[in-house]
């Protein structure tokens, strides 16, 4: 219990709860502020990665469909 808590007659856990509430509020505000841009950037990265993987799979399938010209 801190000295100021003694003056205000607060329990020590009240300060911890207040800190947790402030942290949760800050997290929610940050999520609200950056969610749209961050979500769009994440979706763009994922779609680029997926399209790159699909292109590699198609190339691999085409290569095996054509056969091995050196074999």
Quick structural summary:
The protein has 71 residues and is an all-alpha fold.
Q: Can you give a write-up of this model?
A:
The structure is a single chain. This protein is mainly alpha-helical and 71 residues long. It is 86% helix and 0% strand. The chain is built from two helices and no strands. It has helices at 3-8, 12-66. The longest helix is centred in the middle third of the chain and has 55 residues, at 12-66. It is rod-shaped.
What are the main properties of this structure?
71 residues, 2 helices, mainly alpha
Shape: rod-shaped
**Count of alpha/pi helices:** 2
Assign the structural class, choosing from mainly alpha, mainly beta, alpha/beta, alpha+beta, or little secondary structure. mainly alpha
Q: Care to count the β-strands?
A: 0
Instruction: Sketch the topology as an H/E string, one letter per element.
Output: HH
Strand percentage lies at under 5%
Show unreliable segments.
Answer: none
- What integer value in Å does the Rg equal? 28 Å
User: How far apart are the termini?
Assistant: 80 Å
Tell me about the largest β-sheet.
Answer: none
Helical coverage, percent range: over 70%
Give the mean pLDDT: 76
What is the fold's blueprint, element by element?
Blueprint: H1 3-8, H2 12-66
